[in-house]
Write a structure and sequence with these properties.
alpha+beta; five-stranded antiparallel beta sheet; elongated
């Protein structure tokens, strides 16, 4: 069974999950830099018919990439163990399962937003976000965890 959050519970979790999300995003960006450097090196070798490379540097980059992938996996697992869902690392997008009139929906938060102001059905996703009005007031009662 999923954990369901009230709006207040989800917002109180943001400071905790935000740091892990930032670390995962930063690691993903660094992996992109390493991948680009490897592609550039490969293209250079192809263009000049071979080239002198620094095998130690290449090995360090490969090891760093492996370490960064593990960091991403660990941070995403930590975040999801709290009950929320990592939906998109590029956007820094998290969903918090909630109940609205007995139906599961997601409270939707994006890195950089000061609070949770959006929700969507489980089928619609980010593009179907709707602004929270009074659907999730203090009387929202989550199911037991």
């Amino acid at each position: 069974m999923s954990r369901y959050f009230t709006l207040q519970e989800a917002e109180s979790l943001i400071p905790t999950v935000q740091e892990g999300l930032k670390a995962a995003i930063s690691a993903k960006e660094r992996i992109g830099e390493i991948d680009q450097a490897m592609q550039n090196l490969s293209a250079h070798i192809c263009m000049v018919g071979g080239a002198e490379i620094n095998p130690d540097k290449v090995a360090r980059q490969k090891l760093e990439r492996i370490s960064l992938m593990q960091l991403i996996d660990d941070r995403v697992s930590d975040i999801q163990s709290s009950g929320c869902l990592v939906k998109d690392l590029d956007l820094g997008l998290l969903d918090f399962p909630a109940l609205l009139n007995g139906v599961e929906v997601y409270l939707c938060w994006k890195l950089g937003e000061s609070r949770i102001e959006w929700w969507h059905s489980t089928q619609e996703g980010y593009s179907g976000r709707r602004r929270i009005m009074d659907e999730f007031d203090d009387s929202s009662t989550p199911l037991p965890n």
